[in-house]
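About this split. The held-out portion is used to measure sequence recovery: a designer receives only the structure tokens and must propose an amino acid at every position. Recovery is the fraction of positions where the proposal matches the reference. Here is one held-out target exactly as it appears in the evaluation file.
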């Protein structure tokens, strides 16, 4: 990794004056059709506000929003730290309650390393279609829709930006789980994958064996669209716990984005979302599904993760290895769930490991 991370002491200034102008020069925005629910047509609506005009809302209603960054146009800026070699496209699958713009810093590093970047905002997130009017809540009726949406995005959009070169996956948290499901169900889409704190199983406050019965029962009695206990609507103030083991400038930057855009203020799960996350977890951990994985992967595990369970992450890696595919578990000590939001001394080796893994051209086998 021949470049330095952004200076945390001048983080906002660097983002405004260096990173964002460069990203705007190579940024494309688009919309794609959402997958249809079982037995019905795709439907949805965009959250109000955020500067979307009435005409735009009518044209994009029920569709999924994405942004892409073209490495060739970025290279035209002739930045000293940028790689002159195009290496392919990286698909970023964001986490629960996140949005594309949150990954601007990671996009910057990937572009510097010679990769185009494509980000789909999952249903119920960002500017993409929603099925619930409260912008704080995330609801989904079937987790398979996330998987179908991401797989179609990769084949229809990301392949174009790759231009025949490899397509890689960088999936965080919920996006890591969705990406893992794509690796199981569509084994040839990605050439390599990095799963960062993947939500192989979410923390619910209940034992993993009991949670499906409690959450599923709540959905059956009409609580599908209600907020789950322990979650809350968006609050503009940053909670003290959010600063623990984190880079304060990065956390404050993320929050500033949320405060400016109502579409970015998703902050809480509904019972249906948790129910579907648990169903996805059970599918991910079936050995028969892990046996289908063909894509070499690195799985980064945070050792102080408040959102996903560590043991299922480790189990997933072991089962993929047992199925004959290369999978490496990297434990990041004294780290938080959002590994890309840590201070530079912790984030630098993380970013380097991710890019080095994507850069490696040798074939990785389970016997290496």
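Reference sequence for scoring:
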């Amino acid at each position: 990794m021949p470049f330095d991370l952004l200076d945390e002491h001048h983080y906002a200034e660097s983002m405004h004056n260096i990173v964002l102008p460069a990203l705007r020069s190579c940024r494309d925005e688009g919309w794609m059709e959402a997958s249809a629910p079982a037995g019905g047509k795709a439907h949805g609506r965009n959250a109000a506000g955020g500067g979307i005009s009435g005409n735009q809302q009518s044209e994009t209603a029920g569709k999924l929003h994405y942004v892409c960054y073209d490495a060739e146009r970025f290279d035209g800026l002739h930045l000293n730290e940028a790689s002159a070699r195009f290496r392919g496209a990286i698909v970023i699958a964001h986490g629960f309650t996140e949005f594309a713009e949150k990954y601007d810093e990671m996009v910057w590093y990937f572009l510097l390393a010679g990769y185009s970047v494509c980000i789909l905002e999952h249903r119920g997130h960002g500017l993409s279609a929603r099925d619930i009017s409260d912008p704080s809540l995330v609801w989904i009726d079937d987790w398979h829709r996330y998987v179908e949406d991401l797989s179609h995005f990769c084949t229809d959009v990301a392949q174009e930006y790759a231009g025949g070169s490899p397509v890689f996956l960088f999936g965080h948290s919920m996006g890591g789980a969705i990406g893992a499901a794509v690796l199981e169900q569509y084994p040839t889409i990605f050439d390599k994958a990095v799963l960062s704190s993947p939500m192989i199983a979410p923390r619910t406050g209940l034992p993993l064996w009991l949670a499906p019965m409690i959450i599923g029962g709540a959905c059956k009695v009409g609580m599908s669209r209600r907020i789950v206990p322990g979650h809350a609507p968006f609050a503009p103030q940053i909670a003290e716990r959010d600063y623990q083991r984190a880079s304060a400038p990065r956390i404050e930057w993320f929050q500033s984005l949320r405060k400016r855009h109502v579409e970015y203020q998703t902050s809480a799960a509904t019972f249906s979302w948790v129910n579907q996350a648990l169903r996805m977890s059970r599918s991910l951990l079936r050995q028969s599904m892990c046996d289908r994985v063909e894509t070499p992967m690195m799985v980064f595990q945070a050792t102080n993760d408040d959102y996903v369970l560590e043991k299922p992450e480790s189990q997933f890696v072991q089962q993929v290895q047992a199925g004959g595919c290369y999978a490496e578990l990297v434990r990041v000590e004294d780290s938080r769930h959002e590994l890309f939001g840590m201070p530079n001394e912790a984030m630098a080796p993380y970013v380097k490991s991710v890019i080095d893994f994507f850069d490696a051209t040798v074939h990785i086998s389970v016997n290496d």
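Annotator remark: The radius of gyration is 19 Å.
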